[in-house]
């Protein structure tokens, strides 16, 4: 609910469990007065203190009042160069060379439903499920108008923000920085939690108290990156899974980003989140508008678990768009780890036949099917089948796969070009690169200049043709290198600072076109695994390959970190062969299944090589997955015990909305002789219900399971449990 007090100029956003408030003061400064656990009513600007602080300057309107300073007041959207020395949200470069941005309130407007952002992904809702508030600020000298957009989704405690910036003057204005979100906290007694790592080790949780100064994570790789995720948290130092106030903020964006937190001189803190200012410079001609990507925030008064469940709900109900949001996704087998580049039609059909016999529903042909690609050094851009490997092309192969009772899916990497390709021979300038510099290659390949409509048009036509030549019901959209030498032949020198962002807009444009070409096709996002696992991509691709690391024990940590913001149903997770490619570790098939089944499930191996006993287990897993799909897809997710390879088993629980059913998953790490007796306290059950646990005779009261716990059997190293709890 949005409550506007127009006389006092107070704006309050109420969600089920939280309150957010701002106030435009007597000078038109938009002050942030509160964000936290729900408060019923009132003007919270009484929390703001005014004091004469040395070296904190006073704006002109304050006259000689030395207690009024932009440097000490909590700002809703900080300017720059005008007396607030903390993290800026907006930095302008005006035609006179000045870099001042100084914003004042000019008006507000409330709308039913949720605003949309042209060309950018954003949360959405039917008119009766969300509201929009637009607050307008203006820098009168620069003649720049800033519209602050707020979307309020009461049920899931979600508040979204985006900013629209308009040049209302007669001369060009350059944007040097335009954050999507600025959030001031009265106290810096907060921990900063980020999700970091690298290729094959994405989204490990890191927690640290704020120290004086600015601490930040971000990406200048052109993609949101394996190294840092565009989702961060701030929380009370005592907060944990079930207690304490915590804040989560995600950028709904897939390119360069920066999440920065400053612990300032008076022990207050500021968070800004938005496009990374590195090499960002956007020219606004008179009348032009720039829209920032959207940021999404959820505050939980009751720990991380509740915040995650609210994010999961928000993503499932208000960000994932197509039929696949509700439809069960097929169990797939992917050819990559089974065949790499070394295959032909008979080999693929053998893999597919084995998989079909075991109940797999979708066969995905990964890399190596196009141009003359036999390794990763050629052919990206030449999106037609290699008839030497696949006589009769994709159409013939897809028909044979379909005849086995399976759907057919295909890997593509449409943002890339190999120098050894017909496309590059014809259009060398379609790769991002200043002509004066030699190429920097990544995985032997270059990045196409998606800022150019003709480049996107070429790729769109190639994909359209592909989708017509074969019945393709799934696409894996990959992106396998970071951007370097970022320069477009189509833009003048003074606009090169726009290329990173225009690239991302180009990717979104093409994804939208491909979705429209083939509305029922399931698209899985991928960037060398989880290099672009973000809410921007999820708007177009309802699942994302979580990591190229398919080792089940490593995956526990990756899926755990990912679960803080993203629902299990969005995480591509496959069972692969042992010993594992990346780690050399051998984990029982049962455990590989337990881990992968808590994501969008599939296999990535030659199923024909399995002994009969394991084939039966695969049949069983597929049946199990189908049975548990609904619960994993739409149930609530509880983290019970975090991954710790040398300690207690990792455990999590999926609980149905009516709390009548739950699925308990437990995976043991390293085991030492003489292990302790372990009891696991469950969460989210109905304390008054009696649950029967798979295979057991006894009934367990919900309160016993949650307060006293469930006794775990002694588990061997890497052994797992997958137990159903059903209320009677
Ligand atoms: C990336 C993907 C893998 C696979 C290969 C193919 O690394 O993450 O799953 O598709 O590309 O080249």
Q: What's the CATH topology name of the largest domain?
A: Beta-galactosidase, Chain A, domain 5
User: Can you list the ligands bound to this structure?
Assistant: alpha-D-galactopyranose
- Beta-strand content estimate: 25-35%
Overall mean pLDDT stands at 97
The CATH homologous superfamily of the largest domain is termed alpha-galactosidase from lactobacil brevis
Poorly predicted spans: none
| Fraction of residues in helix | 10-25%
Task: Count all strands and give the number.
Answer: 38
CATH A-level architecture of the largest domain: Distorted Sandwich
Largest sheet: 10 strands, antiparallel
C-alpha-based Rg, rounded = 27 Å
Shape type: globular
* Estimated structural class: alpha+beta
CATH class of the largest domain: Mainly Beta
Through-space gap between termini: 38 Å
Per DSSP, the total helix count is 12
Total discrete domains? 3
Question: Can you describe this structure in just a few lines?
Answer:
The protein contains 12 helices and 38 strands. It is of the alpha+beta class and 728 residues long. It folds into 3 domains: 2-318, Distorted Sandwich (Beta-galactosidase, Chain A, domain 5), CATH 2.70.98.60; 330-635, Alpha-Beta Barrel (TIM Barrel), CATH 3.20.20.70; 641-727, Immunoglobulin-like (Sandwich), CATH 2.60.40.1180.
């Amino acid at each position: 609910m949005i409550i506007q007090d127009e006389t006092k100029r107070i704006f309050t956003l109420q969600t089920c469990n939280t309150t957010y408030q701002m106030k435009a003061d007597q000078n038109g400064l938009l002050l942030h007065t509160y964000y936290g656990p729900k408060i019923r009513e009132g003007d919270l600007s009484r929390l703001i203190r005014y004091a004469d602080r040395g070296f904190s300057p006073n704006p002109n309107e304050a006259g000689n009042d030395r207690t009024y300073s932009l440097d000490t007041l909590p700002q809703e959207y900080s300017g720059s160069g005008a007396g607030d020395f903390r993290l800026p949200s907006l930095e302008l470069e005006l035609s006179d060379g000045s870099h001042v941005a100084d914003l004042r309130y000019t008006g507000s407007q409330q709308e039913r439903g949720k605003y949309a952002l042209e060309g950018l992904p954003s949360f959405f809702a039917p008119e009766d499920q969300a509201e929009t508030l637009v607050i307008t600020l203006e820098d009168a000298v620069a003649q720049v108008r800033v519209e602050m957009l707020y979307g309020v989704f009461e049920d899931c405690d979600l508040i979204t923000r985006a900013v629209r910036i308009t040049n209302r003057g007669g001369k060009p204005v350059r944007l040097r920085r335009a954050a999507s979100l600025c959030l001031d906290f009265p106290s810096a007694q907060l921990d900063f939690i980020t999700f970091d790592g690298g290729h094959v080790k994405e989204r490990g949780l890191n927690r640290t108290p704020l120290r004086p100064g600015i601490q930040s994570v971000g990406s200048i790789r052109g993609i949101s990156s394996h190294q840092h995720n565009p989702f961060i948290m701030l929380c009370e130092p005592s907060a944990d899974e079930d207690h304490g106030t915590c804040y989560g903020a995600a950028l709904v964006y897939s390119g360069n980003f920066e999440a920065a937190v400053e612990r300032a001189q008076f022990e207050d803190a500021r968070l800004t989140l938005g496009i990374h200012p590195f090499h960002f410079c956007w020219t606004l001609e008179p009348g032009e508008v720039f829209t920032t990507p959207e940021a999404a925030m959820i505050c939980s008064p009751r720990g991380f678990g509740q915040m995650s469940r609210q994010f999961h709900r928000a993503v499932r109900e208000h960000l994932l768009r197509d039929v696949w949001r509700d439809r069960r996704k097929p169990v797939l087998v992917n050819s990559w780890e089974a065949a790499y580049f070394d295959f032909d039609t008979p080999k693929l059909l053998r893999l597919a036949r084995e998989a079909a016999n075991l109940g797999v529903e979708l066969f995905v042909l990964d890399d190596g099917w196009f141009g003359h690609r036999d390794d990763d050094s050629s052919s990206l851009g030449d999106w037609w089948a290699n008839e030497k490997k696949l006589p009769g092309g994709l159409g013939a192969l897809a028909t044979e796969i379909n005849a086995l009772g399976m759907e057919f899916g295909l890997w593509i990497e449409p943002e890339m070009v190999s120098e050894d390709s017909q496309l590059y021979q014809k259009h060398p300038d379609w790769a991002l690169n200043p002509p004066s510099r030699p190429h920097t290659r990544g995985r032997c390949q270059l990045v196409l200049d998606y800022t150019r409509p003709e480049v996107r048009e070429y790729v769109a036509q190639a994909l359209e043709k592909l989708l017509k030549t074969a019945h393709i019901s799934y696409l894996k959209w990959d992106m396998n290198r970071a951007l370097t030498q970022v320069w477009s032949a189509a833009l003048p020198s003074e606009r090169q600072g726009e290329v990173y962002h225009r690239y991302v807009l180009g990717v979104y444009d093409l994804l939208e076109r491909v979705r429209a070409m083939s509305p029922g096709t399931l698209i899985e996002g991928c960037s060398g695994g989880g290099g672009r696992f973000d809410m921007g991509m999820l708007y177009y691709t309802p699942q994302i390959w979580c990591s190229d690391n398919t080792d089940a024990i490593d995956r526990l940590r990756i899926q755990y970190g990912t679960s803080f913001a993203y629902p299990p149903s969005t995480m591509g997770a496959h069972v692969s062969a042992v010993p594992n490619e990346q780690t050399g570790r051998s984990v029982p098939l049962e455990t590989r299944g337990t881990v992968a089944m808590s994501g969008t499930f599939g296999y990535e191996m030659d199923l024909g090589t399995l002994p009969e006993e394991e084939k039966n287990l695969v049949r069983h897993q597929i049946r199990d997955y189908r049975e548990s799909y609904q619960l994993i897809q739409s149930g609530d997710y509880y983290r019970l015990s975090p991954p710790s390879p040398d300690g207690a088993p990792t455990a999590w629980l999926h609980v149905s909305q009516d709390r009548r059913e739950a699925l308990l998953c437990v995976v043991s790490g390293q085991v030492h002789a003489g292990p302790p007796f372990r009891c696991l306290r469950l969460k989210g059950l109905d304390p008054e219900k009696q649950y029967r646990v798979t295979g057991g005779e006894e009934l367990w009261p919900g309160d016993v399971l949650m307060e006293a716990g469930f006794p775990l059997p002694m588990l061997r190293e890497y052994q797992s449990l997958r137990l159903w709890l059903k209320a009677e």
